[in-house]
Amino acid sequence: FLGDTGKMEGAKKDKAGSKLSVERVYQKKTQLEHILLRPDTYIGTVEPITQQMWVFDEEIGMNQREITYVPGLYKIFDEILVNAADNKQRDKNMNAIKITIDPESNTISIWNNGKGIPVVEHKDEKMYVPALIFGHLLTSSNYDDDEKKVTGGRNGYGAKLCNIFSTKFTVETACKEYRHSFKQTWQNNMNKTSDPKIKFFDGDDFTCVTFQPDLSKFKMDKLDKDIVALLTRRAYDVAGSCRGVKVTLNGKKVPVTGFRSYVDLYVKDKLDETGVALKVVNETVNDRWEVCLTLSEKGFQQIGFVNSIATTKGGRHVDYVVDQIVSKLIEVVKKKNKAGVTVKPFQVKNHIWVFVNALIENPTFDSQTKENMTLQTKSFGSKCLLSEKFIRAATNCGIVESILNWVKFKAQTQLNKKCSSVKYSKIKGIPKLDDANDAGGKHSSECTLILTEGDSAKSLAVSGLGVIGRDRYGVFPLRGKILNVREATHKQIMENAEINNIIKIVGLQYKKSYEDPESLRSLRYGKIMIMTDQDQDGSHIKGLLINFFHHNWPSLLKHTFLEEFITPIVKVNKNKQEMAFYSIPEFDEWKKQTENYKTWHIKYYKGLGTSTSKEAKEYFSDMEKHRITFRYSGAEDDAAITLAFSKKKTDDRKEWLTNFMEDRRQRRMHGLPEQYLYGTNARHLSYNDFINKELILFSNSDNERSIPSLVDGLKPGQRKVLFTCMKRNDKREVKVAQLAGSVAEMSAYHHGEQALMMTIVNLAQNFVGSNNVNLLQPLGQFGTRINGGKDAASPRYIFTMLSPLAKLLFPSGDSNLLKFLYDDNQKVEPEWYIPIIPLVLVNGAEGIGTGWACKIPNYDPREIVNNINRMLNHQDPLPMLPSYKNFKGVIHELGQNQYLVSGEVSVIDRNTIEITELPVRTWTQAYKESVLEPMLQGSDKTPALINDYKEYHTDTTVKFVVRMSEEKLAHAESVGLHKVFKLQSSLTCNSMVLFDHMGCMKRYDSVQDILREFFELRLHYYKLRKDWLLGSLGAEAAKLSNQARFVLEKIEGKITIENKSKRELIRMLVQKGYESDPVAAQEEDDHEGNESDSSVDSGSSSGPNFNYILNMPLWCLSKEKVEELLKQRDHKVLLISLFFIFSSFTSSCIFISLDTRHAHIIVFYMEVLCGLLSKRDVILTVRLSSVEHTAESCNYDFMTFHKQLKERRCAVYIAETLLCVCPISDTVVAEILQNMHLSVSPNYAQ
User: Fold this and answer.
1) Rounded CA gap, 570 and 581, in Å?
2) Nearest-angstrom CA–CA distance, 771 and 762
3) pLDDT digit string (tens) for 516-544?
4) Which residues, 6+ apart, have CB-to-CB distance to 422 below 8 Å?
5) Contact predicate 352/326, CB 8 Å
6) C-alpha distances in angstroms, 908 versus 31, 684, 960?
7) pLDDT band, residue 303 (cuts 50/70/90)
8) Segments in 419-527 forming alpha helices (H)
9) Which whole-number Å values give the CA distances from 258 to 54, 284, 295, 890, in the listed order?
10) Which residue from 373, 326, 371 is spatially nearest to 350, judged by alpha carbons?
11) Residue 1033: pLDDT above 90?
12) Which letter, b or e, does each residue of 168-202 get, where b requires 16 or more Cβ atoms within 10 Å of its Cβ?
C-alpha cells in the first residue's frame, strides 16, 4: 500500500484542483509495478548525475574524470556482469567472459563458458529453471545462508531487475549435464514473454544474456560515450578481479592478465612529487586476497572488489587491509619524524592508494547497489595477514617520504604562526624579560640582548648595566640548557616556551634569510650576547644557542651577530696588584712561572653568582675586555657545529673525541699545558675554535661521568662516595640518605641527590649478577636478584658503612701518592684510587657516554690474584672466564670475547622439570612474567607449552618447578631445555673501553690487556710508595737527629739561645748546618702539584723553617726526653736499614735472628715489618742477650710478631741459626746486621 494511513491533514486534489477519490489515494501495486514506479529502491536513481568516476578511455586508459551517467542503468548492467563472474566460483573450469556493447543498436550481451543453468523443469513451480530465475522476482540460488558462498548475488533481484528495465531481454544457456539448450525472450519490461525454446544439445556449457535497456526509463535516448566508458571499465574490472578468466570486449581481448596488471592501468605514467614513477607493492596473500599499494597524492584512494563487485565506497574489507598498513607505517613514521608533529592514523591513510580484491563468504551490503560492504570482519571466512616483506616494501614505496614531507610542511606552517613579521617596539607576556628601551625602534640594530644562565646571572648583568645604561641592552634569563633543535621534535619546539620567547624577543622569522645586512634591521635586536658560567655546562649552553641559530638561520652567523661575555674564573691579588684569569690552564701556566705564587691571595669563581655587584660594574665598565665576538670563518665552522650536535655525526664525533684524548695524552706525557681560548687579550674567536677547544671539554666530561677508570674501576660519582666514606671512617652504620648528603658536602657532588643515593645502593649490592666484592656493607634491604636491585628499600630506611675489604683493597699507604682534585678550592676525591687488584675486572663495568660505551663482565678475584702472582714471577697471565659470585650456572667461551651464559635446569620425572638457576642478570620476576607466564597462557599463534609452575625460590636462590605434558617435555628435550625455556644468554665483550691512568679513553682488546696495564701501574706505585716511605722516614730521622743534636749541644753549652732574636737564632742554626724542617719540606714536595691553592699568606713559607727546633718545650732538656729522642732517632735509622735489606731480597725464604734486647723495636715497627715480610717463608730465632731480657719476658712480643706474620700468609719456623740470602756482599750484610744487633751466616750453601 502506498500513502499515509494516518490522519489526513487535508483532502488531496488533482492538478485541476478536484478532490481525489479514496481509490486514487490508496492504491495497491504489484511488485513489478512497484519496481518500475520506485526504481531508486532497487537499482539506484534513474536520473542522470554528474560526478568524478573512474572510466576507461581508449586513449589514456583508466581515467578519473567527471562524467554524466544514470546509476540505475549502470546497476542493471553490473548485475548481469557479476552473475557471469560468479559462475567462476561454481565452475573452476570457466575461463572466458565475452562482453558486447553496441550503442547503435542499444544492445548489450554478456556470455560466459561456465557451467550452464540446469535445463530442467522445476517440479514445484512447473517451469524451466532458467525461466524461473530470470523471469520471476525473488528467485535465487543464494537463499541458503548456511551455505558459504563467495558470489555476488544475494537477495533474489539481480538479473530480474535488468529484465524489468529492458525493452528486450534474452537468455540463452546450455547444460551438458541435461543435454539441452534453452532460449527465451522477455519484452516490454518483463511484461511480455515468449515461449522457451528447448533443443537437444551436445556441446560445452555456456550462458548468454542479451538485453536492450529501456532508455526511456533512464531519461536517455542512446548509450552515450560516458556510460560506455563506465561499462567498459567494469569489463576491465572483471578481467582484473576474476582470476583465471579471459575477458573480451566487442570481440577484442581485454589486455589484463591479473590483478597486478589491472592496477598498472591506474598508475600508468603517474609520477610522485619528486618526478619518479609510482612504485606499486603487491601481494597475493592467499587464494582469496590480493592487495596492491602505492602512494596517493589526492588523499586516501581505494579500488576494492568483493566477489568481483566493485565496492566504489569501500567497506570493511578495505578497512581491514588499510588498518594493518597504517598501523605499520605509523610506527616507521614516528621513528623518522624529526619534525615531531603528531601524526594520526587518518593522516597516514591520506597518503595511501590501496587496491583490494577479495572473495568473502556471504557478503552483506548497505544497499542493493552494493557500493559499501558491511559484513563483520570475523565473518569473512578467511584472513588477510600482510607479510613482513610487504610491509617493508610499503615503507620504501614513497608513502613514508610523502608523509614526512607533509609533516615538515605542517610543522613549518605551525612554526610560522609562532613568528610575527611585524617589528614591535614593545612586547608583553614574556616573564623575566628586561627589554632594551630602544629594542624594536629605529636604533634596534644597535641593541644587544644578553642571554644569561639563570636568574643570578641576570642579577649580575642588571648590576653591570647600571654603568652603561639600559637603552641599548636587554636581559633575558635562560632556565638551564635550551633544546638541541637540530634533533628535537616539532612538538618539543612548539611547546618550548624558552625558544619561542627568544624568537619573539629578537623578532626572528622561520625560513627567512638574513644574508643581507639590511635584513637585520627587521630584528628587534642586532646582537645576542651569551653570558654563562665559565664552566663546562656554561660552554654547553653557549654551544646549544649557537646550534639553535645555525640550524634555523645560518646566515645570522655570517654577521657578528653572536657574542659572549666572559668573567674571571680565578682572581689573584697581592699588594694592591690584581690579576684575572679566564681559564684554569692559563692560571696553571702563571703558577709555574711565578715563584712563591702562594704569597698571592687566590680566589676561585665557581659561577657568575660568585661575583659581587661591584665586580659586575667593573666588568661592564671595561666591556671590550670581557666581550668576545664570534666570527664566521667559512664551511669549517658549519662542519664543526654540525659535528657537535647532529645525530648523523655519531661516528665522526667518536673520532673527534678520540683525537682530543690522544692530544691530551701527548700533552700530559710531555708536560705541555692544556689548550685554552680565553687569554687576557682574547677579543674574538671562530665557531670552529669554540667547538674544538671548549665545547669538546663538555662532551668529554659526559664520558668521564659515564665510563669508569681502568685503575680503580670507579666512575666519578662512585669515587666520591668512597672518598667520603674513607674520610668519615665511620665506626657505626649510617643511613644511605644521610651519607648522600655527606658526599655532596665533602666531595662537591653537583648532580641529583636521587642518582647519588642509587650509586651508594649499587656499591653495596651483593646479589648474584651485581658486585663480586661490594665496597659498602648492605645493612638493610638493598635489593635482590628477584628484581635486579630495583626492590631496594627507600634510602631513608637502609644503612651502610665501608666494607672491611674496601680498606684492604685501598691501602692507606697509597693516599700520599694520589693526585687529589679540587673543586671550588675544596679538596675532593683523587683522580683515581689504586687498589691492590683491578676492581674493574672484579666487579665489571658498564656505561654509555658520548660516542662510546663500555661493558666488561665480572671476574673471579681469586683468578685475578693468581694471575698477578704469575706476572710477579715473570709468567704470562692465564685466560679467565667471566665469573659472578654465587652463580650456579655455567659460562662457556664461544669465541674471542664472546661467551654463552647458561642457567640450570633438570628433569625430575616425565612431566616435571626444575629450574634452579637463570642466566646472569635475568631477574627472577622478569623471567616469570616474560617466559613462564606466556608459556602457561599461550596465544593465538602459540598454544600453551606448560600446564603449571610453582615457585620455591628465595631472595638469593632460584627454584621453579614446572609441570607439562609428557609429549611436550619430550619435544622440549629434543630441541634443548635451555633453548626452549630461554635459559641461555650471550655475553659479548667487544666494547671494553676505559679511561687509562692518563685520563684518556682507550679500547682494550682483551681482559689480559687490562690486567697487564694495571699490573705495570700498580707495580710502579709500589715503588713510589716505597720511595715515599723512605723519604718520609729519612725526613723524620733527620728531624729527630737535628732535635737530638740541638738538645745535646744546648746541654753541652755549645749553643746559646738566651736573649737573642729569632732572626739571630735562625742565622746561627744555618751556620751550624742545621736543616730547615725536613718533614715540612718533604710534605711540601709531596703536595706540590696537589696542594690547595687557597689564599695562604705564606710569609712563613719563605726562608728556612726552624720552628720544629725553636718551639721545643724546655722540658725537652730533661734526661728522659733526651733518651726518648735518641731512641726514636735509632728506631727511624733501623727502619730505613730494614727497608733496604728486605727490599733487596730475591728469595722467598728469609731467616731472622732477633736479639731480646731489641724486642721493643719489633713491637714498635711490627706492622711495617710484617708488611715487608708478607707471603715469605720466615725462619725466626731468638737470642738471649742477658739475664734481664729472658725469653719469658719477651715471649708475648715475639708471639705477637709470630701471629701477625702467620696472618700475612708467612710460613714461620723457629730455628737456631740465621741465613739471609740477599744480592749484596757478605761484608756489607754482616756490618749492617751487626749494627742492628742481628747476625748472619755467610755460608750461603746452608
Assistant:
1) 5
2) 8
3) 888 888 899 999 999 998 888 888 999 99
4) none
5) yes
6) 78, 78, 12
7) very high
8) 454-468, 490-495, 497-506
9) 19, 11, 21, 58
10) 326
11) no
12) bbbbbbbbbebebbbbbbbbebbeeeeebebeebe
- Cβ-proximal residues to 14 (8 Å cutoff; 6+ apart), any chain: 20
* Dist. CA 86–CA 259, nearest whole Å: 17
Quick one: 681 exposed, middle or buried, by C-beta within 10 A (0-12, 13-18, 19+)? exposed
Task: Give the torsion sign (CA, 235, 236, 241, 243).
Answer: positive
pLDDT at 153: 58
Q: Decide: 189 and 167 in contact? Cβ < 8 Å.
A: yes
Using the predicted structure, report yes or no on whether residue 1142 has a pLDDT greater than 70. no
How far apart CA 482 and CA 475 sit, in angstroms, is 16
Report residue 1128 as a C-alpha cell.
726514636
pTM, two decimal places: 0.65
- Measured distance CA(1093)–CA(1089) in Å, rounded: 10
Whole-angstrom distance, CA of residue 373 vs CA of residue 367: 9
Secondary structure (3-state) at 453:
strand
Residue 413: pLDDT band (50, 70, 90) is low
Q: Which residue carries 627507600 as its cell?
A: 794
In which element (H, E) is residue 783 found?
none
User: What is the DSSP track for 376-407?
Assistant: -GGGSSS-----HHHHHHHHTTTHHHHHHHHH
Strand (E) or helix (H) holding 988: strand 984-988
Q: Compute CA distances 745 → 139, 730, 740, whole Å.
A: 94, 16, 9
Would you call 514 helix, strand, or coil by DSSP? coil
Question: What number of other Cβ atoms are within 10 A of residue 91's Cβ?
Answer: 14
- Cell numbers 710508595 label which residue? 1025
CA 520 to chain centre: 40
- Put residue 125 in one of left, alpha, beta given phi > 0 → left and psi -120 to 50 → alpha: alpha
Tens-digit pLDDT profile for residues 650-708: 888 888 888 888 888 888 777 787 777 776 677 889 999 999 988 888 888 888 889 99
All 3 cell numbers of residue 515?
Answer: 644574508
Q: What is the mean pLDDT of residues 771-779?
A: 95
Higher pLDDT, 584 or 443: 443
Q: Are strands 627-631 and 601-604 parallel, antiparallel or unpaired?
A: unpaired
Count the helices and strands in the chain (H runs, E runs): 43, 45
DSSP-assigned letter for residue 434: B
- C-alpha span between 266 and 293 (Å, rounded): 12
Report how far residue 718's alpha carbon sits from residue 1198's, in angstroms, rounded to the nearest whole number.
Answer: 42
d(CA 770, CA 792) in angstroms, rounded, equals 13
Place of cell 627454584: 959
Q: How far apart are CA 361 and CA 339, in angstroms?
A: 45
C-alpha cell at 1095: 689564599
Residues in the chain: 1246
Alpha helices in 103-170 (DSSP H): 129-135, 158-164
Q: Ramachandran region of residue 1074, left (φ > 0), alpha (ψ -120 to 50) or beta?
A: beta
Kindly list the catalytic residues. Answer: 797
What is the C-alpha separation between 588 and 1093, in angstroms, rounded? 10
For residue 3, what pLDDT is reported?
Answer: 42
SS3 995: strand
Sign of CA dihedral 582, 585, 589, 595: positive
> Residue 390 is placed in which grid cell?
610487504
| CA atoms lying within 13 Å on the CB side of residue 25 | 13
Distance from chain centroid for Cα 1004: 24
Burial class (CB in 10 A: 0-12, 13-18, 19+), 928: middle
User: Would you say 179 and 203 are in contact if contact means Cβ atoms under 8 Å apart?
Assistant: no
Partners of residue 100 on adjacent β-strands: 109
- Which grid coordinates are listed for 373? 560492504
Residue 170 has φ and ψ, to the nearest 5°, of: -120, 135
- The whole-angstrom distance between residue 1199's C-alpha and the CA centroid of its chain comes to 62
